[in-house]
Amino acid sequence: MQEKKPWTWNGFVGLLALLLIDIAGAWIMVQTESPVIGVILAIISVTLLSGLTIVQPNQAMVVTFFGSYAGTIRQSGIWMTTPFSVRKKVSLRVRNFNSTRLKVNDIDGNPIEIAAVVVFRVVDSAKATFDVDNYEQFVEIQSETALRHVAGKYPYDMFDEQGYSLRGNSDEVAAQLARELQDRLSVAGVEVMEARLTHLAYSTEIASAMLQRQQAAAIIAARSKIVEGAVGMVQLAISQLQAEGVIELDEERKAAMINNLLVAIVSDRSASPVINTGSLY
Protein backbone atom coordinates (compact mmCIF):
# COMPACT_ATOMS: atom_id res chain seq x y z
CA MET A 1 0.00 0.00 0.00
CA GLN A 2 1.35 3.42 -1.00
CA GLU A 3 0.94 6.62 0.95
CA LYS A 4 -1.42 9.22 -0.54
CA LYS A 5 -2.91 12.58 0.42
CA PRO A 6 -6.52 12.64 1.68
CA TRP A 7 -9.17 15.29 1.27
CA THR A 8 -8.41 18.15 3.63
CA TRP A 9 -9.66 21.63 4.33
CA ASN A 10 -7.99 24.39 6.32
CA GLY A 11 -9.01 23.88 9.95
CA PHE A 12 -9.32 27.57 10.82
CA VAL A 13 -11.65 28.13 7.87
CA GLY A 14 -13.59 25.04 8.95
CA LEU A 15 -13.94 26.36 12.51
CA LEU A 16 -15.18 29.68 11.17
CA ALA A 17 -17.71 27.86 8.99
CA LEU A 18 -18.88 25.80 11.98
CA LEU A 19 -19.28 28.97 14.03
CA LEU A 20 -21.34 30.61 11.31
CA ILE A 21 -23.51 27.48 10.96
CA ASP A 22 -24.15 27.40 14.73
CA ILE A 23 -25.03 31.11 14.79
CA ALA A 24 -27.35 30.68 11.80
CA GLY A 25 -29.03 27.65 13.39
CA ALA A 26 -29.56 29.45 16.69
CA TRP A 27 -30.95 32.52 14.94
CA ILE A 28 -33.36 30.42 12.85
CA MET A 29 -34.59 28.55 15.91
CA VAL A 30 -35.20 31.84 17.72
CA GLN A 31 -36.87 33.65 14.81
CA THR A 32 -39.07 30.80 13.57
CA GLU A 33 -41.49 28.56 15.32
CA SER A 34 -40.22 25.45 13.46
CA PRO A 35 -36.86 24.20 14.79
CA VAL A 36 -36.34 21.71 11.93
CA ILE A 37 -33.84 23.82 10.00
CA GLY A 38 -31.96 24.64 13.17
CA VAL A 39 -31.69 20.94 14.06
CA ILE A 40 -30.46 20.14 10.55
CA LEU A 41 -27.79 22.84 10.79
CA ALA A 42 -26.75 21.52 14.21
CA ILE A 43 -26.36 18.01 12.78
CA ILE A 44 -24.25 19.40 9.93
CA SER A 45 -22.09 21.25 12.45
CA VAL A 46 -21.50 18.12 14.57
CA THR A 47 -20.73 16.09 11.44
CA LEU A 48 -18.11 18.55 10.23
CA LEU A 49 -16.68 18.87 13.72
CA SER A 50 -15.93 15.13 13.78
CA GLY A 51 -13.47 15.67 10.91
CA LEU A 52 -11.39 18.26 12.77
CA THR A 53 -7.84 17.07 13.51
CA ILE A 54 -4.54 18.57 14.68
CA VAL A 55 -1.19 17.41 13.26
CA GLN A 56 2.02 18.10 15.19
CA PRO A 57 5.39 18.82 13.48
CA ASN A 58 7.20 15.67 12.24
CA GLN A 59 4.03 13.68 12.68
CA ALA A 60 1.70 12.03 10.17
CA MET A 61 -2.00 11.41 10.61
CA VAL A 62 -3.24 8.26 8.86
CA VAL A 63 -6.93 8.62 7.96
CA THR A 64 -9.24 5.64 7.44
CA PHE A 65 -12.92 5.87 6.59
CA PHE A 66 -15.05 2.83 7.40
CA GLY A 67 -12.13 0.46 6.92
CA SER A 68 -10.75 2.11 3.77
CA TYR A 69 -7.48 4.01 3.66
CA ALA A 70 -8.30 7.63 2.84
CA GLY A 71 -4.79 9.10 2.97
CA THR A 72 -2.16 10.61 5.22
CA ILE A 73 -1.91 14.20 6.43
CA ARG A 74 1.78 15.19 6.74
CA GLN A 75 1.61 18.99 6.98
CA SER A 76 1.43 20.23 10.55
CA GLY A 77 -1.47 22.40 11.69
CA ILE A 78 -5.22 22.12 12.17
CA TRP A 79 -7.18 20.47 9.37
CA MET A 80 -10.69 19.47 8.48
CA THR A 81 -10.84 16.03 6.85
CA THR A 82 -13.42 13.32 6.13
CA PRO A 83 -16.09 13.31 8.89
CA PHE A 84 -16.43 10.23 11.14
CA SER A 85 -13.03 8.99 9.98
CA VAL A 86 -10.56 7.18 12.22
CA ARG A 87 -7.18 8.90 12.55
CA LYS A 88 -3.93 7.33 13.80
CA LYS A 89 -0.75 9.20 14.65
CA VAL A 90 2.56 8.01 13.17
CA SER A 91 5.81 9.66 14.23
CA LEU A 92 8.14 10.78 11.42
CA ARG A 93 10.97 11.71 13.79
CA VAL A 94 14.42 10.12 13.60
CA ARG A 95 14.78 7.41 16.23
CA ASN A 96 17.45 5.08 17.59
CA PHE A 97 17.23 1.40 18.36
CA ASN A 98 19.95 -0.09 20.56
CA SER A 99 20.06 -3.85 20.27
CA THR A 100 20.86 -6.05 23.21
CA ARG A 101 24.19 -7.85 23.34
CA LEU A 102 23.74 -10.91 21.16
CA LYS A 103 25.83 -14.05 21.46
CA VAL A 104 26.53 -15.40 17.96
CA ASN A 105 29.16 -17.42 16.13
CA ASP A 106 31.40 -15.79 13.55
CA ILE A 107 32.24 -17.51 10.26
CA ASP A 108 35.00 -19.51 12.00
CA GLY A 109 32.58 -20.76 14.65
CA ASN A 110 34.01 -18.65 17.47
CA PRO A 111 31.37 -17.41 19.94
CA ILE A 112 31.32 -13.62 20.12
CA GLU A 113 29.22 -10.88 21.71
CA ILE A 114 27.94 -8.17 19.40
CA ALA A 115 25.51 -5.24 19.57
CA ALA A 116 24.53 -2.39 17.25
CA VAL A 117 22.61 0.87 17.11
CA VAL A 118 20.20 1.52 14.23
CA VAL A 119 19.07 5.04 13.28
CA PHE A 120 15.80 5.00 11.34
CA ARG A 121 12.66 6.93 10.49
CA VAL A 122 9.29 6.26 8.86
CA VAL A 123 9.06 7.47 5.25
CA ASP A 124 5.79 5.75 4.24
CA SER A 125 3.13 5.92 6.95
CA ALA A 126 0.71 3.71 4.99
CA LYS A 127 3.17 0.78 4.89
CA ALA A 128 4.15 1.31 8.52
CA THR A 129 0.48 1.19 9.57
CA PHE A 130 -1.08 -1.42 7.31
CA ASP A 131 1.69 -3.68 5.94
CA VAL A 132 3.10 -4.76 9.31
CA ASP A 133 1.41 -5.38 12.63
CA ASN A 134 3.70 -3.16 14.72
CA TYR A 135 6.47 -1.41 12.82
CA GLU A 136 8.53 -0.57 15.94
CA GLN A 137 8.60 -4.20 17.04
CA PHE A 138 9.26 -5.19 13.44
CA VAL A 139 12.33 -2.93 13.35
CA GLU A 140 13.67 -4.44 16.58
CA ILE A 141 13.28 -8.06 15.49
CA GLN A 142 14.61 -7.51 11.97
CA SER A 143 17.58 -5.50 13.28
CA GLU A 144 18.67 -8.31 15.56
CA THR A 145 18.11 -10.87 12.80
CA ALA A 146 20.21 -8.87 10.32
CA LEU A 147 22.93 -8.36 12.94
CA ARG A 148 23.15 -12.11 13.56
CA HIS A 149 23.31 -12.80 9.82
CA VAL A 150 26.04 -10.23 9.13
CA ALA A 151 28.11 -11.33 12.15
CA GLY A 152 28.05 -14.90 10.83
CA LYS A 153 29.51 -13.83 7.46
CA TYR A 154 32.82 -12.48 8.79
CA PRO A 155 35.51 -13.67 11.20
CA TYR A 156 36.11 -11.70 14.38
CA ASP A 157 39.70 -11.03 13.34
CA MET A 158 41.94 -11.80 10.36
CA PHE A 159 45.33 -12.94 11.59
CA ASP A 160 46.73 -13.23 8.05
CA GLU A 161 45.53 -9.68 7.17
CA GLN A 162 43.55 -10.86 4.14
CA GLY A 163 39.83 -10.17 3.70
CA TYR A 164 37.34 -8.40 5.95
CA SER A 165 36.87 -8.94 9.66
CA LEU A 166 34.42 -7.62 12.24
CA ARG A 167 37.14 -5.93 14.28
CA GLY A 168 39.36 -4.64 11.51
CA ASN A 169 36.72 -3.46 9.02
CA SER A 170 33.99 -1.91 11.14
CA ASP A 171 32.99 0.63 8.45
CA GLU A 172 32.50 -2.04 5.78
CA VAL A 173 30.58 -4.28 8.21
CA ALA A 174 28.36 -1.35 9.23
CA ALA A 175 27.63 -0.55 5.57
CA GLN A 176 26.72 -4.19 4.92
CA LEU A 177 24.46 -4.20 7.99
CA ALA A 178 22.71 -0.99 6.84
CA ARG A 179 22.08 -2.41 3.35
CA GLU A 180 20.65 -5.65 4.69
CA LEU A 181 18.47 -3.79 7.17
CA GLN A 182 17.12 -1.53 4.43
CA ASP A 183 16.16 -4.56 2.36
CA ARG A 184 14.35 -6.06 5.34
CA LEU A 185 12.62 -2.87 6.55
CA SER A 186 11.50 -1.40 3.22
CA VAL A 187 8.29 -3.45 3.48
CA ALA A 188 7.41 -1.44 6.62
CA GLY A 189 8.06 1.95 5.01
CA VAL A 190 11.15 2.54 7.17
CA GLU A 191 14.38 4.19 6.02
CA VAL A 192 17.62 3.08 7.68
CA MET A 193 19.80 6.17 8.06
CA GLU A 194 22.75 4.54 9.82
CA ALA A 195 23.78 1.31 11.50
CA ARG A 196 26.88 0.97 13.69
CA LEU A 197 28.39 -1.67 15.92
CA THR A 198 28.42 -0.57 19.57
CA HIS A 199 29.90 -3.69 21.16
CA LEU A 200 32.18 -6.42 19.87
CA ALA A 201 34.08 -8.94 21.98
CA TYR A 202 34.86 -12.61 22.28
CA SER A 203 32.62 -14.55 24.62
CA THR A 204 33.98 -15.09 28.10
CA GLU A 205 34.67 -18.80 27.58
CA ILE A 206 37.26 -18.17 24.83
CA ALA A 207 38.32 -14.59 25.58
CA SER A 208 41.48 -15.63 27.44
CA ALA A 209 42.65 -18.05 24.74
CA MET A 210 41.97 -15.52 21.97
CA LEU A 211 43.86 -12.83 23.88
CA GLN A 212 46.91 -15.10 24.02
CA ARG A 213 46.56 -15.72 20.29
CA GLN A 214 46.39 -12.00 19.57
CA GLN A 215 49.44 -11.38 21.76
CA ALA A 216 51.38 -14.13 19.98
CA ALA A 217 50.42 -12.71 16.59
CA ALA A 218 51.52 -9.23 17.68
CA ILE A 219 54.86 -10.55 18.95
CA ILE A 220 55.49 -12.44 15.70
CA ALA A 221 54.61 -9.38 13.63
CA ALA A 222 56.92 -7.18 15.72
CA ARG A 223 59.77 -9.71 15.46
CA SER A 224 59.35 -9.86 11.70
CA LYS A 225 59.68 -6.09 11.46
CA ILE A 226 62.77 -6.11 13.69
CA VAL A 227 64.46 -8.84 11.65
CA GLU A 228 63.61 -7.08 8.40
CA GLY A 229 65.13 -3.85 9.67
CA ALA A 230 68.18 -5.59 11.10
CA VAL A 231 68.97 -7.31 7.79
CA GLY A 232 68.75 -3.99 5.99
CA MET A 233 71.05 -2.31 8.49
CA VAL A 234 73.63 -5.11 8.22
CA GLN A 235 73.57 -4.99 4.43
CA LEU A 236 74.05 -1.22 4.51
CA ALA A 237 76.95 -1.44 6.98
CA ILE A 238 78.87 -4.09 5.01
CA SER A 239 78.26 -2.27 1.71
CA GLN A 240 79.63 1.01 3.07
CA LEU A 241 82.67 -0.67 4.62
CA GLN A 242 83.52 -2.37 1.33
CA ALA A 243 82.79 0.72 -0.76
CA GLU A 244 85.06 2.98 1.30
CA GLY A 245 87.82 0.36 1.51
CA VAL A 246 87.99 0.51 5.28
CA ILE A 247 88.49 -3.22 5.65
CA GLU A 248 88.76 -6.24 3.44
CA LEU A 249 86.35 -8.97 4.51
CA ASP A 250 86.48 -12.53 3.34
CA GLU A 251 83.41 -14.72 3.58
CA GLU A 252 84.21 -16.02 7.08
CA ARG A 253 84.85 -12.56 8.54
CA LYS A 254 81.76 -11.27 6.77
CA ALA A 255 79.67 -14.07 8.33
CA ALA A 256 81.08 -13.28 11.78
CA MET A 257 80.27 -9.58 11.41
CA ILE A 258 76.75 -10.32 10.21
CA ASN A 259 76.22 -12.63 13.18
CA ASN A 260 77.47 -10.04 15.68
CA LEU A 261 75.41 -7.21 14.18
CA LEU A 262 72.23 -9.28 14.04
CA VAL A 263 72.63 -10.40 17.64
CA ALA A 264 73.21 -6.81 18.78
CA ILE A 265 70.21 -5.43 16.88
CA VAL A 266 67.65 -8.21 17.34
CA SER A 267 68.38 -9.06 20.99
CA ASP A 268 65.81 -8.03 23.61
CA ARG A 269 68.58 -6.90 25.94
CA SER A 270 71.45 -4.51 25.44
CA ALA A 271 74.44 -6.21 23.86
CA SER A 272 77.60 -6.57 26.00
CA PRO A 273 80.68 -5.96 23.85
CA VAL A 274 83.51 -8.54 23.94
CA ILE A 275 86.94 -7.27 22.86
CA ASN A 276 88.86 -9.83 20.82
CA THR A 277 92.60 -9.16 20.94
CA GLY A 278 93.53 -12.23 18.97
CA SER A 279 92.99 -13.32 15.43
CA LEU A 280 89.82 -14.83 14.05
CA TYR A 281 91.86 -17.71 12.62
Describe this structure in words.
Helices cover 47% and strands 22% of the residues. The protein is α+β, with helices and mostly antiparallel strands and 281 residues long. It has 3 domains: 82 residues, no CATH class; 108 residues, Band 7 domain (Tetrahydropterin Synthase, Chain A, 2-Layer Sandwich), CATH 3.30.479; 50 residues, no CATH class. Strands 7, 8, 9 and 10 form a 4-stranded antiparallel beta sheet that branches. It has a 3-stranded antiparallel beta sheet with strand order 1-5-2, with helices on one face. Strand 8 and strand 9 form a beta hairpin. It starts with 8 loop residues before the first strand and ends in a 15-residue tail after the last helix.
CATH superfamily of the largest domain: Band 7 domain
Residue fraction in strands: 15-25%
Low-confidence stretches: none
Spatial extent as radius of gyration: 38 Å
CATH class of the largest domain: Alpha Beta
Tell me about the largest β-sheet: 4 strands, antiparallel
